[in-house]
Amino acid sequence: MPYRLRYALLILAGALTVGCSPSASSHSPHVFLGVAEDETSGEGPVGLLNGEAIQVHTVSKVKEAAYEEYLRAKKDAKIVAEENYNGFIYWATKESRDVPFENATAWVTVLERYRTKSR
Fold first, then answer.
1. What gap in Å lies between CA 104 and CA 22, rounded to an integer?
2. Which of 91, 72, 118, 115 is nearest to 33 (CA)?
3. Other CB atoms closer than 10 Å to residue 76's CB: what's the count?
4. Is the pLDDT of residue 99 over 80?
5. Alpha carbon distance 60, 114 (integer Å)
6. pLDDT digits (tens, 9 = 90+) for 43-88
7. Across 2-58, where does the E strand assignment appear?
8. Is residue 16 part of a domain?
9. Of residues 19, 97, 88, 25, the one with CA closest to residue 60
C-alpha cells in the first residue's frame, strides 16, 4: 500500500475513533424513584385549561437546587426520598396543591424531585 494512502487511512481511522467516543452530552438520564430525571410521570387529574385537556403529572422532572435549599428541606424534615449518584444528591419532597381548571379544581399531591451537587 502506498505511503500516502496508508497515512490517509490512519487519519480517517483516528477521526472515526474520536467521533465514536462517548461524550458528556450523550449520557443517559439517571432514574430516580422509577422515573428518568428528565421525564415526568404519574396520572393525576385531567381538566380543561384554555379549552385543552391537561393532565397533572404527580412526579416532576428533576430540577437543580442549591445545596442550601437541600439543607433547609432536610432540616425541616420535608425530604421523603434521597439518593447519592455520580456526585449529586437526588432528593424529593411531597407537595399538595390546588390545581384550578376551567371546569373544576383538583387537590393534588405532587412528588417534586431535585438534585444538588454533593459537597
1. 48
2. 91
3. 9
4. yes
5. 9
6. 888 888 888 888 888 999 999 999 999 999 999 999 999 999 999 9
7. 31-32, 35-36, 46-49, 52-55
8. no
9. 97
Nearest to 76 by CA among 87, 61, 91: 91
Residue 15 located in a structural domain: no
Percent of the chain with pLDDT over 90: 53
Q: What's the domain count of the chain?
A: 1
Q: What digits encode the pLDDT tens for the residues 24-36?
A: 445 789 999 999 9
pLDDT of 103 > 90? The answer is no
The pLDDT value recorded for residue 2 is 54
Q: Is residue 51 part of a domain?
A: yes
* Residue that has been written with the C-alpha cell 437541600 in this structure: 70
In angstroms, what CA-CA distances link 4 with 8, 10, 12, 14?
6, 10, 12, 15
